[in-house]
Amino acid sequence: MAIAVVVLCGSTQAGPTYSFTPITSNGAASVAIGQAQMAVELNDLGSDQVLFTFTNAGPEPSSITDVYFDDGALFGLAAIQESAGVAFSQFALPVDPPGGSTLVPPFVTTNGFSADSDPPAQSNGVNPGEWVGIVFDLQSGQSFTDVVQNLDDGTLRIAIHVQGFENGCSEAFVNDGTVTIPAPGALLLSGIGTALIGYVRRRRGD
User: Fold this and answer.
1) Residue 25 in contact with residue 182, Cβ under 8 Å?
2) What is the SS3 assignment for 52?
3) Which of 194, 171, 169, 183 is nearest to 58 (CA)?
4) Residue 74 bridge partners (DSSP)
5) Dihedral angle, C-alpha 139, 177, 134, 102, nearest 10 °
6) How far apart are CA 62 and CA 106, in angstroms?
7) Sign (positive/negative) of CA torsion 95, 99, 103, 106?
8) ∠ CA(181), CA(183), CA(189), 5° rounding?
9) What is the mean pLDDT of each run of 10 residues along the chain (206 residues)?
């Protein structure tokens, strides 16, 4: 599927923000940093679209290099938006998050519901103070409320692969509950909300 970057005027309705819990545990420091710094915020774009904004609040070195979605009310990945210094494309490698098979049930990425940073992966990933937004079309009859409910009851799961920790480890994480982001993250997300006055969507051939 071709993903086009198209900047449009529009408004977003902010929804909940989710933190992450570790799938892998390659190092105590990298696990702790991932849990403290990484988050995903939902925004209702209307027109049957939902925006997932992945953030790295910093300050510790780390980079989100892959994002994955498992099932739920989503229909198809429509667009990708990035902050300066971030470059992502649809379809992540590896296809499923590291360690995802150990979850119950196993995390199996829905076909086409993933993205990763372009080479060089770490520098083009989501480093401290950066973000990447993934826009999804929803299935017919589904709404933003359904997506939130899916995340709360586990029908939809989101995983990330994070690299570039100082201890040399990489870690995978899965969404875990609704959180209030601490001060550094709150400031970052506030700036992102302003930036998302323009968002990207799928090319429809016009």
Assistant:
1) no
2) strand
3) 183
4) 138
5) -90
6) 26
7) positive
8) 60
9) 39 81 97 97 94 97 98 95 97 97 96 97 98 97 95 95 97 84 47 45 37
